[in-house]
Amino acid sequence: MRFPELKYYICLTLINLFCLFEADLNFLNKIMPLSQVKEKLKNSKDASSLSLRMSLEINDESFEAVEQILYELPKSKGWLNAPCILYTIKKVKEAFLAQKIDAKALDKLIYAYIYFLDNFEKEDRWFSRLYNVNLIQGLVEILHLYYYLPEWIKKDLIEATIRVYGLCPEFWRLYKLNNLKISELEISFNRFNNIANFWEKDSSEEQDTYYLNLYLDLIFFKRYNNVDVYQILREILIYILSNKSLKMEIKKLYLSLLDNYEDLVGILSHPLIDEETYNELISTYHSKLPGEILKLYPVPKSSYQEGLLELGKRILNEEFDYAVKLADSLLYSTSFSLEDSLIAVDFLNYYAITTKNELLLERVLSKLITMLEGISAQNPLLLSILYRIFNSENLNSKNLDAYLIMIEDMVKEKLGGEYLDLIEFTKNNPHPFLKDNYFSDTLVVVYSCQKNLSTRIKTIKETWLKDLEKYKIPYIICVGGSEKLELKDNVLYLPVPDEYEFLPQKSLALYEWVFYNTQFMYVYKIDDDSLLNAEWFFSILSYRKHNYYGRIVKRNIGGTDRSWHQQKSKNILYRTKIDKSYEPSVYAEGSTGYSLSRIAIDKLIKIRKSEIGQIIE
User: Can you name the CATH fold of 439-551+589-616?
Assistant: First the structure.
C-alpha cells in the first residue's frame, strides 16, 4: 500500500472516533487534507462512506450536502457510522443557535432526518440501525429546537417521533435525561408508561377498566403507525388470552387490533392459552384465518425418517418391546448408512445394559466391532455407546469379556488414548445421569436471569417443563449474578454478570460446569422466552448424531450488524461499543435453541484454554 493511501485509510478510521468523542476534525488535516478525503469519499455510495463524508460536510458547513446524504443513506448498504450521524446533528443544532443557518435550511434538514429514520430497508440491519443510541440521541437533539420551529414542522416532528420511537424505552430515557418537556409528547410518554408497566399493574385496579384503557393506549400508537406496536401487542395478547377471569368481549377487542390474522395462529399455539378460549376464538375467526394455515398438510418422509421417528416415539413412551424390535430391523437394514444405524446400536446398547440382557448385548457388541472401522472419531453417538459400556456395573459376564477387550483395543488403535481418557474422566464426575432412562444423558438448560425466576420461569414450569418431567429428562435453569457457583432447586447460579452483554461468559461458565461436574453426553440450550416441544424434539433423535445441532448463521463481508447488542446492553461501554467480529463469519444461532455433544464441549474448553482462545477472550 502506498503512503498516501495509508494516510487516507488512517483518516477514515479516525473520523468516526473523533465524532464519537466530539473532537475537532480539523486536527486530521495534519495527516491528510480533509478536502482530499472528502473528494475520494464522493466516489463511494455505501453507508460507511456516506456517513463519514457527512461529518466532513458539516465540518465545512455544507448544509445542502448534509441534507442530500440523509436522503441517500436509508437505501445504502453496509455499516453505518452512527457517531458521525449524531455529530452532524449536534453541529446543525449549534449552527442554528449561532445563526449560521437560517430557519428554512434547518427545516429542510429536519425533514431529511425524519426521512432518514422512516426509510430504513427492512433487512437484517434495520432493527439495530433504527435503535442505535446515537440515532435516538440525534432526534433528541432536534427536539431541543422544538420551540424555535413553525407549527407545521412541530406537528410533523411529533408524529415522526411517536411513529419511530414512541414505544422505545431508550428514547424516553434520553427524553427525561435531557429535561425535555414538550406538551404534545407528554401524552405519548404517559401512554408509553402505561404499556411499559403492564407487567407490574396494580391488581387492585378494576380489571375491565384497566384493560380498556390499555387498549386505548395501543390504539393510539397504532394510529401513528408505530413500528413496535405489533410486537408489543403480541406479547400482551398472550397474557390477556390466558386470563380466565377476563371477559371474552375484551379478549376479542384486543384481537381486533391485529391486521394479519396469520399472527393469531402463533398466538393460539401458545401453551398458556386455555382450551375454552382457544375453541371460542377458533370458532369466531375461522373464516378469517387463511386455509393453508388451518390445514396441516403432511410432509412426505423417507422410510428412514419414518423409522427413526417411530423408534424415538416408542422409546420416549417406554414401549420397549416394540422399540427393540424396530431398532433390530433398523440395525440390519441395508438402506441406512453406517452412522445412521449407530442410533439403533445406541438404543439397543442402553436397553441391553439396563435390562442385563446378555444375549442382546452380545449381538450389539458384535455389530459395533464390525462398524468401528468406518465410524468417525468425532461421532457423538460412539462416545455415548462406549461410555455406557465402560461405565456399566452390569457387564460382569465372562462371555462378554472378549468383546470388551477387542472394542477397547480397536478404540485405542483407531481413536487414540485420549478418547478413553475422556470416558474415564467423565466417569469420575459428580451428577451422573439416570442409567434407567435413555434420554437422561441429555441435559436441557434454560437460559435466564435472576429477575425472570418469578415470572418467565414460573410460567414455563407450569407448561413445557412438565413434559420434561413426564419423560424423565433432566433440566436446569441457568442464571448469572451469583457470588459463588451453586446448584439449588434445579437452578444453576453462576458467578458471572447476569446482563445481556456477558452472555459469552455465561455460556463458557455453563459448559465448563457441565464438563467438569456432570456426566451428560448432550446439552440442549434454550432461552426462557422460547417453547420446546419435548415430545417432537426427542422423538426425532437427530440431535444425538451431531456435535452441534441447531441453526447456523452465516455473515458475509459487510453483513454483520455491529450495533445489534447496544440496545440490549446495560453497561455504558457496550451501549456504545461496536461489534468487531471477523467477517465472513459462521456461528451458532441461539434464539431457537441448540444442542452440543460432550465432544463439542471438550473442544470448546480446549480452544478457550489455548493461546488463541485467551487472546480472543
Answer: Spore Coat Polysaccharide Biosynthesis Protein SpsA; Chain A (3.90.550)
